[in-house]
Design a protein that fits this description.
heterodimer; A: alpha/beta; Rossmann fold; 6-stranded mixed β-sheet; 4-stranded antiparallel β-sheet; 7 helices; 10 strands; globular; B: about 400 residues; alpha+beta; 2 domains; 6-stranded mixed beta barrel; 13 helices; elongated
Chain lengths: ~220, ~400
């Protein structure tokens, strides 16, 4: 489903060029559960950003769902992101002035789904993530675990093909983190591709496939 | 993203950051209120002057002896000639013109008024019966030169003079002296107060022939002419000019001033003044616009992670641009409406404080003020919203 061929991403630091990604070749099938590990600066976040179409490679080819997405326009990329990819971030990234329900609704608003359908889908999501009693609360009034559940509900509301999680438990304590991971894994079992970036060994060990990165290259890839 | 959702979500942002929004709205409102109030003041002054002018008569033309030259040689001066007098005969000729509804020859002088052991100097107007309607004066009692009494020694007293000389009895029918001549009081003017710098309450009016003999002159001070209608004024002016030129042996030695021309000049000056103050007030709108731009830039920098998130969940550049644009639009719209209400309220206070000043903001100023305010708001939000739209999502998301 995700098909990366010789992806290279170069950052300019002053007059030096730094290879964040160096000729990466990677195939991830639909429904796979992949962890990407590596020290900071190894390029794992950059890889995730490129897979999530937030960033563009300097060279190489990226096919998502069999379709070349390397040369999409910005608007087409935004649409692809919205429909096929769900992001889960370490710092949740909820809009502070909107309620939990409204945060979950945002992708539907961006996708111009009619209001009636939006309401029922948000209600379903709130139920699925056990957030009904928190629907009208703002992020500041929610616990870390609840915030991440809202973020996951938002990431999955448009039923994406892949969920990209960047240190999803980084801001949560251990047991809450495990609960969140169980939620994500359940989605994966239902057929969603799950890619988790982390430098936590224990978290990485839960995945079926482990990719190790160093200096912009994939150094290990084991199932 | 639909327009409806864009408007709703941006309105949410406006109401969420209350202090910030209130400050911007206040800045915009003060600018709009300044435009409305200052133009109300300027236009009020203009209307005040126009009212004063129409209170001395309508469709008026004044004919004066002598030629007002602002350039070129004045022949009469070099050849030792004085301008020809304006005479009663001239006035009668003017009175026959078809464009003229009525006319009043006028002599003005000062004489000593005395009766019942009281005496004082008064301004004397010598004229005919038509002076009263032409000058929009009203008689409180009696009449002036009523039919069949054109040649009798009548006098009309200003309201204050009647009160001073005959405090206890009715002035009508009393005898009064003007210098050495005796007059019969046949009318008293209504109390009118001061208009255009002189007080009709302290004048007396006598028939023109008596005034000419009193001041020992055959020349008129001026002839007041009322045209039949506003549109007749230019042709009346021309006809008067031709008539007097003919009767003065081809000499152009009179000056004809229309009330319109004077009024137009004042109108233009005060209109320009109103425009100038509106322009000054508009500067405060520009300042408000810059403030909006500044605050929107700060808002974007504060909400950078949010913009990154919106992009990550599928917003494209246009969505982001529209959101911030709509936010600035809400702010300027609210500021404009509140400013308009402030301005109207301020004008109302002005009118209450100075009842004689009709301080209504002209429609053009209100429309221009509102449009300029909205355009300023829109222009000021273009740069911030396009900057927000261009943000790189990866960098925006990583900003703490």
């Amino acid at each position: 489903m995700i098909d990366l061929t010789e992806i290279t991403r170069i950052f300019k630091m002053g007059d030096q060029s730094v290879y964040a990604l160096h000729e990466i070749n990677l195939n991830i099938a639909t429904g796979e559960y992949v962890s990407i590990m590596g020290p900071s600066g190894s390029g794992k976040s950059t890889l995730l950003n490129i897979i999530g179409l937030l960033d563009r490679p300097d060279s190489g080819r990226y096919a998502l769902d069999g379709k070349n997405v390397t040369d999409l326009t910005e608007t087409e990329q935004a649409q692809t992101r919205r429909d096929k990819i769900g992001f889960v971030f370490q710092s949740f990234h909820l809009v502070p002035r909107l309620t939990a329900a409204e945060n979950i609704e945002m992708p539907l608003i961006l996708g111009e789904i009619p209001p009636d359908e939006r309401k029922s889908r948000v209600a379903d999501a709130l139920q699925a993530f056990d957030l009904q009693s928190r629907a009208q609360h703002r992020p500041a009034e929610l616990s870390g675990g609840q915030r991440q559940r809202v973020a996951i509900a938002r990431a999955t509301i448009l039923r994406p093909k892949a969920i990209l999680a960047d240190e999803p438990t980084g801001n949560l304590d251990h047991s809450i983190g495990a609960e969140v991971m169980t939620l994500l894994e359940k989605l994966c079992q239902e057929g969603t591709t799950l890619i988790v970036v982390t430098h936590d060994r224990e978290l990485s060990a839960r995945a079926k496939r482990h990719i190790g990165m160093r200096d912009g290259k994939i150094v290990t890839d084991s199932s | 993203m639909t327009l409806n959702d864009t408007l709703l979500i941006s309105l949410r942002a406006v109401t969420s950051y209350r202090v910030r929004s209130l400050l911007i709205i206040l800045a915009m409102a003060l600018g709009v209120a300044a435009v409305v109030m200052l133009t109300a003041l300027g236009d009020g002054a203009r209307r005040y002057v126009v009212n004063q002018f129409s209170s001395i008569g309508t469709n008026l033309i004044a004919v004066m002896p002598g030629r007002a030259e602002t350039s070129g040689a004045f022949l009469g001066a070099t050849m030792g000639r004085t301008p020809r007098d304006l005479t009663l005969k001239d006035a009668q000729l003017i009175g026959r013109l078809p464009q003229v509804r009525r006319y009043a020859p006028l002599n003005v002088g000062v004489a000593e008024l005395s009766a019942a052991k009281r005496l004082r100097d008064v301004t004397v107007l010598g004229s005919t019966a038509d002076l009263i309607p032409i000058r929009h004066m009203n008689l409180a009692q009696g009449s002036f030169l009523a039919h069949d009494s054109e040649h009798s020694a009548q006098i009309v007293l200003g309201a204050k003079l009647a009160e001073e000389f005959f405090p206890t009895s009715n002035a009508i029918g009393q005898r009064i002296r003007l210098d050495e001549n005796r007059f019969l009081v046949t009318g008293v003017l209504a109390l009118q107060g001061e208009t255009m710098g002189y007080n009709t309450d302290e004048i007396v009016i006598i028939p023109i022939d008596y005034a000419q003999s009193l001041f020992n002159t055959t020349s008129l001070f001026r002839i007041l002419v009322e045209a039949r209608s506003h549109s007749d004024i230019p042709s009346a002016k021309e006809a008067i000019h031709d008539t007097l030129k003919k009767s003065h042996d081809g000499e152009e030695d009179v000056t004809i001033i229309t009330q319109d021309a004077v009024l137009d000049t004042f109108d233009r000056i005060l209109h320009a003044l109103t425009l100038a103050v509106a322009g000054i007030a508009a500067i405060s709108l520009a300042v408000a616009g810059i403030l909006i731009m500044n605050v929107m830039l700060v808002a974007i920098s504060q909400r950078t992670p949010e913009i990154g998130l919106l992009k990550a969940i599928g917003a494209d550049a246009a969505d982001i641009r529209h959101l911030f644009f709509a936010e600035a639009l809400w702010l300027s719209l609210a500021g404009t409406i509140i400013g308009f209400l402030f301005g109207q309220f301020g004008s109302l206070l002005l009118r209450l404080a100075y009842p004689q000043l009709p301080a209504w903001a002209p429609a053009w100023a209100i429309i221009a003020g509102v449009i300029v305010a909205l355009i300023t708001g829109i222009l000021a939000s273009l740069l911030p919203s396009s900057r927000a739209a261009r943000l790189d999502p990866v960098q925006a998301l990583s900003k703490k």
